[in-house]
Amino acid sequence: MVSQKSIDLCRPWLYASSMKILAFESSCDETSVAIVEDGRRVFANVVRSQAENHRQYGGVVPEVASRQHLILANEALQAAMDESQLDLQDIDVFAATLGPGLVGSLLVGAQAAKTLAFITGKPFRGVNHLHGHIASNYLESTLEPPFLCLLVSGGHCQLMDVQAYDTMPLLGQTLDDAVGETYDKVARVLGLGYPGGPVLDQLAQTGDATRYALPVGKTQGRFDFSFSGLKTATARLAQNELKADDQTALADLAASFQHAAVQALVQRTQAAQQALGYTTVAVAGGVAANSALRQQLADWCTEQGLQLHLPHMAFCTDNAAMIASAAFFSPLTEAMADEVFSRQKTVPCR
Ligand code: KG4
Ligand code: ZN
To answer: Are the C-beta atoms of 155 and 349 separated by less than 8 Å?
Structure first.
């Protein structure tokens, strides 16, 4: 049988030495520019968050996001060049996220990268944002496929069978809300502001997770997820039971919510690991920064003798370093780029 490694060796571009890729990430509300060598070594990773611009609306406003990307892109590019101490001529490939994401926002990063490729005479590579999240595990690390990956972000919640750098079939996904989206919506109901995930996570660490029994979403598919029931149950409890100044109950509700949400993620990950027999499990996406998820997966993996790979905190939420890594390991073909770009969202991504 021909192994995946020997197939990969037939594609030398995957292993071209010292390939420096400059990438843009602008799919949602982070404007980011990074330079990464050979998909792993980060020379610069500049992330300009737009959270302040969207906070007053309680979520990302697409029109505001595109305009902010236009305002921030040049400064982020300059900062990345300064940080890396490289010149544009040192860059071998320019890359950008082509989707999924907000169409007006994606156009800003994609057009910036294509323009730089054009003026320097270097190639352009398009990247699928989800491949970027998976590739965040390759940054400053030696991790190689195959592994099982739990991808948990504001827009997605899925389990991927990462067989090779460019072969990662979907095992299961959320049937309704993404887990990050659920955190953001519950945080809004609890009056914790935007973005809700990190604040809710912090508050949950101070509460009693056994106080409220909240549902762990059930699905027919063994590796699928469902979070809308948990979201509605938490919102109903908040409206019916929470008194305005009861900080203890608020923390307990946050902890109970986090317990149910993380249970759902860990249970499906365990089921997929048992079914596929992988000995390495990786996590990706903004919710990979969640303290309870990291802890519970670490405990389980230690108990079972499995390797757990968690991206560095800086590479969990949207950033261009992961896009530069994916541009090295799993760039989109032109046909795939057309496909991914034609399915853009025009609504807020969370
Ligand atoms: O990957 P990401 O930056 O953007 C998307 O591609 O969607 O993920 C952002 C999401 C948001 O929903 C945010 O609330 C969530 O990740 N998040 C967290 C935490 N940090 C960020 N959710 C739970 N716990 C956290 N510590
Ligand atoms: Zn993302």
So the answer is: yes
Rounded to the nearest angstrom, the distance between the alpha carbon of 121 and the centre of ligand 2 is 29
Ligand 1 atom at minimum distance from 184 CA:
14
Q: Is the CB of 196 under 6 A from ligand 1?
A: yes
Below-70 pLDDT ranges, the chain: 1-17, 341, 343-350
Sequence-ordered list of residues with C-beta below 8 angstroms from that of 293, at least 6 positions apart, any chain: 152, 262, 265, 266, 283, 287
Tell me how far apart the terminal alpha carbons of the chain are, to the nearest angstrom. Answer: 44
Q: 193 in ligand 1 pocket by Cβ < 6 Å?
A: no
In sequence order, which residues have a C-beta less than 8 Å from that of residue 202 and are 6 or more positions away? none
Domains of the chain, start order: 4-138+316-341 (3.30.420.40), 147-311 (3.30.420.40)
97 beta partners = 127
Report pTM.
0.91
* Ligand 1 touching residue 154 (CB < 6 A): yes
Q: Which ligand is nearest to the CA of 180?
A: 1
Q: What is the pLDDT of residues 65-122, one digit of tens each?
A: 999 999 999 999 999 999 999 999 999 999 999 999 999 999 999 999 999 999 999 9
Q: Is 153 in the pocket of ligand 1 (CB under 6 A)?
A: yes
Burial class (CB in 10 A: 0-12, 13-18, 19+), 273: buried
Length of the chain: 350
Nearest CA to 342 out of 134, 77, 99 is that of 99
**Is the Cβ–Cβ distance between 200 and 254 less than 8 Å?**
yes
CB of 194 within 8 A of CB of 55?
yes
Which residue among 150, 183, 185 is best mutated to probe the pocket of ligand 1, counting the most ligand atoms within 8 A of its Cβ? Answer: 183
